[in-house]
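Here is one chain, start to finish.
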Amino acid sequence: MIDRIHRFQGHGSLRFVYQKGKVVRGQFCSLKFISNSRRDTYRLAVVVSRKVHKSAVVRNRIRRRIYEIIRHEEAAICGPFDLVFTVYNDQLATMPAAELRGALVSQLKKACVLADEPAPTEAQHAIVEPKER
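Its structure:
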């Protein structure tokens, strides 16, 4: 699950994204996004309708899987964006993790939300020299 600072708060908080955001459509879900200069970090919401699947267990599984992938990719998100994933296919619940990650990352790159190369870790940083063995 993502941190609380990366979630939308309140009933009307998604309205700004829905009214003014741009859309990148994929095979299983769509990404609605907009840059939000009033924030320091990104915010994320995943919308899974009851039309996708009747069972709340499956809808929550889809939501958790998307949250987890974005949590692992949050170091590469460049800028304060408001992101809303709208799921319209229940195959995301059973799809292999690598395939799901590839689909979501490609949507984020099309939206120019992700940097082309990931942020360097401490071991890869230019100032820190790796240990010799």
